[in-house]
Amino acid sequence: MSKTVPFKTVQDYFEAQPEKTKKALQELKQCILNIAPNATELLNYNIPAYALIEGGKREQQIMIAGYKTHVGFYPHPTTIEKFDSELIDFKKGKGSVQFPLNKPLPKALIENMVAYRMKLLTK
User: Quick check: is 2 in a domain?
Assistant: First the structure.
């Protein structure tokens, strides 16, 4: 997939992914929507994003992205910090975590992370 191709919709983004990546992205999306059913789906930086509160800007979104060997989950640095010990088996960045495609997604953990982020945004 070329990073320069602008996608029109999240569905277009998903359809452009290899099958394994697409399946993992759909599972990530479902984890987000299980906790934040009213999240608004959009593209931000040409990748899928979910605004957790109405009109949510970048700081109020969770983003996801597909790659050849993993999916990226971008909940926010505060969330990564909070769940650091539970993410020990995964490659992390300041505000991101990579879930490899050759292992099942830790759905309960992902949903806990989304719930934590929602709680911070709706205080």
Answer: no
Domain assignment present for residue 5? The answer is no
Global pTM exceeds 0.90: yes
The Cα–Cα gap between 19 and 54 comes to: 31
Structural domains counted in the chain? 1
Torsion (CA) 71, 94, 106, 70 in degrees, nearest 10? 20
15-68 tens-digit pLDDT: 999 999 999 999 999 999 999 999 999 999 999 999 999 888 888 999 999 999
What CATH number should be reported for the domain holding residue 102? 3.90.1150.200
